[in-house]
């Protein structure tokens, strides 16, 4: 007996079925090309960055709320959070193509858009650095900019190879606790299988929490047992947590080596977690912060010493 299908699998199969019935749809990087005059709606900050990097920014009619870079996206209409898209608002913008990340949805919205004749394309899924060239190639095909995508992917690969070579000799890896959010309850902390886990490892750090996958609340006892040497927080969450001092004063944080030393790093959340063209910058920035004595030997994303 076959395994039960996930909602994302059902969505993609439904999209493909709609395509067979006449609505022009591609799912998971199928490769139809967008023409130069087509209006794009993009749901996924990483995909928006790639679209602009490929020179297609002038065709983007709207983006989701995770799309915050480059600055040119600021004035664009927003269609909501990528996991909670509503078809009515998107259809009102009269897009020709909706390009979504693997997390975009809900499935019913994607199916409604496809049924209305909008082409829907869903990017490859992945939580490690290997998915970035795949996403760049996907966007190149979707936008009809394969040559530009090939150049961007080659630049990304060269940057990552330079960083890997520079960081390879580092043996001491400080333990890092990534806090995604924290309210009145236990903070949401990254385990394995996340973009945060990937970037921490690439920067020659060590994720302090590895006994579960994804993001889960971490009890005070577990936080103390993890004994992180460094706290890492995305910039958009710092204010929600009450600011740096409030974060360090939380009981489950204050008792850790990182809390006692006041070692809190704040980074651009989209750059850190987006797994997009700026991932080399995120790795270099975090590596310099984790290994300050070696900062001058760590190359910048352009390949020159930073």
Strand content: 5-15%
| CATH architectural designation of the largest domain | 3-Layer(aba) Sandwich
CATH C-level class of the largest domain: Alpha Beta
What string gives the helices and strands in order?
A: HEHEHEHEHHEEHEEHEHHHHEHH
Task: Give the helix/strand class.
Answer: alpha/beta
Biggest β-sheet, characterized? 6 strands, mixed
Mean pLDDT: 87
By DSSP, the count of extended strands is: 10
Task: Give a written overview of the molecule.
- The protein contains 14 helices and ten strands.
- The protein is of the alpha/beta class and 306 residues long.
- The chain has two domains: 7-144, Rossmann fold (3-Layer(aba) Sandwich), CATH 3.40.50; 175-297, Rossmann fold (3-Layer(aba) Sandwich), CATH 3.40.50.1980.
- The strands form two sheets. Strands 5, 6, 7, 8, 9 and 10 form a six-stranded mixed beta sheet that branches. It has a four-stranded parallel beta sheet with strand order 2-1-3-4, sandwiched between helices.
- The model is unreliable at 1-35 (pLDDT under 50).
Topology:
Blueprint: H1 7-20, E1 40-43, H2 45-53, E2 60-63, H3 87-91, E3 97-100, H4 107-115, E4 119-122, H5 131-143, H6 146-167, E5 175-181, E6 188-190, H7 195-202, E7 206-207, E8 215-217, H8 220-226, E9 230-234, H9 235-238, H10 244-249, H11 251-254, H12 257-261, E10 264-267, H13 269-273, H14 279-290
Parallel strand pairs: 1-2, 1-3, 3-4, 5-7, 5-9, 9-10
Antiparallel strand pairs: 5-6, 6-8
């Amino acid at each position: 007996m076959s395994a039960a299908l996930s909602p994302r699998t059902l969505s993609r199969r439904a999209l493909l079925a709609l395509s067979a019935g006449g609505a022009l749809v591609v799912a998971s990087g199928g490769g139809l090309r967008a023409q130069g005059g087509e209006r794009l709606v993009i749901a996924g900050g990483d995909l928006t960055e790639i679209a602009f990097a490929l020179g297609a920014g002038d065709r983007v009619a709207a983006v989701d709320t995770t799309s915050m870079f480059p600055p040119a996206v600021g004035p664009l209409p927003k269609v909501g959070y990528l996991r909670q898209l509503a078809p009515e608002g998107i259809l009102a913008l009269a897009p020709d193509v909706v390009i979504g990340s693997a997390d975009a949805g809900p499935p019913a919205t994607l199916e409604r858009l496809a049924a209305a004749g909008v082409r829907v394309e869903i990017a490859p899924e992945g939580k490690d650095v290997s998915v970035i060239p795949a996403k760049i190639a996907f966007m190149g095909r979707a936008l009809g900019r394969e040559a530009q995508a090939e150049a961007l992917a080659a630049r990304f690969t060269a940057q990552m190879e330079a960083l890997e070579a520079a960081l390879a000799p580092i043996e001491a890896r400080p333990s890092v606790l990534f806090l995604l959010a924290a309210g009145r309850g236990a903070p949401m902390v990254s385990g394995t299988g996340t973009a945060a886990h990937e970037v921490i490892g690439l920067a020659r750090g060590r994720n302090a929490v590895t006994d579960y996958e994804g993001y889960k609340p971490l009890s005070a006892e577990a936080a103390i047992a993890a004994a992180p040497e460094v706290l890492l927080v995305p910039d958009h969450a710092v204010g929600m947590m009450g600011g740096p001092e409030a974060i360090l004063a939380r009981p489950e944080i204050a008792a850790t080596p990182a809390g006692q030393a006041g070692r809190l790093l704040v980074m651009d959340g989209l750059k850190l977690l987006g797994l997009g063209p700026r991932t080399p910058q995120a790795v270099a920035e975090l590596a310099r912060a984790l290994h300050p004595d070696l900062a001058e030997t760590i190359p910048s994303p352009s390949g020159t010493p930073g």
